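Q: Structure for this?
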Amino acid sequence: MTNTPDQTPGPERSPSITDPVANRGLDAGTFTELREPRREARLALADGTWHQISPKYVWVQLISSGIAVVVVVVALLFLTLFLQQTWAWIPGGVLLVILLWMIAIVPRQARAYGYQLREDDLVFRRGILWQRFVAVPYGRMQLVDITHGPLDRGFGIAQLKLVTAAASTGVVIPGLPQDTAEDLRDVLIEVAETRRTGL
Amino acid sequence: MSVLPDGAHSDGARPDGAHPDGAHSDIAPPRASVHSPLSDGEWHRLHPLTPLFRGGFFLVVIAGIVIANLRDRLIGTFLPFFVPDAAPTEDWSYGDPLDWIFENDLIPLAGIIVLGIVALLIAGFYLSWRWHTFRITEDQVEVRSGILFRTQRRAPLDRVQGVNLTRPLFARLVGMGKLEVVGAGLDANVKLEYLSTADAEEVRADILRLASGARLARTEPSTGAVGSRAHAVTSAVSNGITGLINGAEEPAGEPESVVHIPVGRLIASHVLSGGTVGLLLLIIGVVIASAFGATWALFTLIPAIIGFGAYWFSQIVKALRYSIAPTPDGVRITFGLFTTVTETLPPGRVHAVEISQSILWRPAGWWMIRINRLTGRSATDTTTDQFTTVLPVGTRDDVERVLRLLLPGTPDEEWPLIFEHGILGPGKEDPYTNTPGRARIIRPFSWRRNGFLLAPHAMLLRRGVIWRKLGIFPFARLQSFALHQGPVDRMLRVATGRVQTVSGPVWGTLAAIDRDAALGLFEDVARSAVAAASVDRSHRWREEQWGEQR
């Protein structure tokens, strides 16, 4: 925490989230260049700096997809060699193609994740072919979740999820360095608390 | 987790600063602001007839099954001259447990067992009534229940999303009803079942008054003495019967409904629905099929028609006796012929409004209004429909009146944007930003109408030609705003905007907006939402009045 709010909280005296000190460390060990669609008609915000996620996220995704590929291949080999169920290659092949496609695009996808901490809201972006931008006012956050699976822990990354009263908000930032995730959560909760209104 | 700094509670929930750390108080509400003796901060029990309605019908059903099964036997025992066959003993000589009991002289034992079960059930019902208590304190409503497994539920009053009073037919006969305090969340309601209607009305008013942030009573507290229990029961029954005959049980002094739906219009509106078109198509198909020899197809019609009839009947019955009226504590909506539901929707609990009209309704000029709100029901609850349809069918004037109730803070200059341009548009000098012509392939029919407008207090989304829709999303209730753009969108230089509110029947998706307009919208909506949320105090809607009065 970088600053302590005064005794009379309110929107005008809340801790400023755009404070460079508050954002210190959000960019440590992350990608440095955002991957965007090439077409000029893409969605893009005029200003603001995008914070990005850690390259380790790519490795976590590659490993988990790789494990899935191995499992599918082993299952297929078992079915065809020992049980002579050659039809299994039809669904199995589809599954394999999808998995390999996911593996192929993960490095690009990971570079397209980004978030901005603006004065009053958080903006989240993801996707290249299908771009998605979401703006969530800080006061609307009901809770902030951090989850990390065993692979995530091994690589020291975590996933941060913002929950609002709308189920469709769906802001999930994967692959944040663990320290960053915890810092970000603390900052977000503090700011959300000072700006909370009715639902 | 960071320790929250002192004074971080800025929600303004308590102007008196009595409990700054959110520590819930057991303090009784100020005498001046509650009217009912039930809401004085002490624990109270529910109405003494509650067990009858909660479990009594179960017993009646069991008794009914037993009697139905023993019908022949009872007739044979008590009314032997009705039995055509004069030799009944032979028929029951084997397989009947009663005969087995009679033959083995187990009558006393069987009697004791039956009596024991009945006594146990009665004791269970009595205890569950006795241990089911509630209280209303200054800032929360709390219910304790259960015999073996005690449950206790508290709901903070400043998060109350509404109060519903449901009166099923049988309970209404004796003048009782279920009170449901709607919380913000899934399955978050606090239920007070059952209270006498008069008590329920007063408790409801008290809860809303406490939730409103007002600390002053509008009127003098009622000084009605609590009579004896027997007197309470008899008066409840007689009042209930009177109310049933008179039809309306509106308490005196409530304002009148601003909308009246004739029964004919209600029925016609259900007949003119998409389902009917489907049914007609099915009939045509079946007739053609049977003309070509497949006569068996005719039989599929019977279940379809029966199902349809039942569906229409239940829908129409639910919407009968509809009324909507303003009260100081929010909009009061009543509907239902057999089961009457009266809900009070406090200000600032409407997250989105949609005015819609199918092409079938267009010649008649009818509209429907639905809202997004927190119903506090679980996600699987199918009855939430009733609580989100605010106007089942109405003319344009009705729509106007209901909207003025639902969106009370709307400035006057905004209404034409909603009525002339939004609901009917596009007309001349259309203020809406519509889909550009190059993207008409995405909305081939409605691209001229498909558009948005940023009004000062809300975002308006105008969509559809066959299903005309106008969505109104107040900035103060907006949760988040998203833009999507897929490859086709990018080729056409457009994007899709999504307004995200609490879940409900109203969807805030507007496809095919010009890309630059969409980016501008993204900034504007984000700014307006934050600004509106920071000044919005409608969750404590009477606080300001109280401040002024002080």
